[in-house]
Amino acid sequence: MLFGQSVFQSVLERLKAEDETTDEAEAPAVHRVAGFGTGLAFDVMEGVSVASQRLGQAYFDNLDIDTAEPVEKPAPLAPPEPVMPEHLTRTAPQQVAAELAISAADTPLTLSEKRRAFARANHPDGVASPFRDNATKRMMLANLLIDEALRRLR
Questions:
Q1: Is this prediction's pTM over 0.70?
Q2: Which domain of life is it from (predicted)?
Q3: Each residue of 81-113: b (16+ CB within 10 Å) or e?
Q4: Distance separating alpha carbons of residues 23 and 152, to the nearest angstrom
């Protein structure tokens, strides 16, 4: 122990003192801003810009980008017209009833499952706008048929 300190503590004190003297000795560079790790954008070294010192930049400096012919982009393709799903063409009550396949053995639970499954495939919010009328008719008929079946069960 040196002067009442352990060897480890004395080494820490010496390193701390050395750091303080080196911080005071360093003078900030004139062309640098405190807190930034790079120089300013207008730095020039021997008449050559800093940007051209980058390896990849030399390739672009030799290209005549301004004189090259502009490349025409192809016109964007129009989205295809939506095609009506085949099931939306069946709007007769008999056709919707056949799809639902409501029977006397159905319970309120199976009827609600059929309603949800039918709505997943036919809800007007899930189809393209030109086919919403057909989807609305199908949903109205299905709800009517399922509600009637539920009334009969009670």
A1: no
A2: Bacteria
A3: eeeeeeebebeeeeebeebbebeeebeeeebee
A4: 91
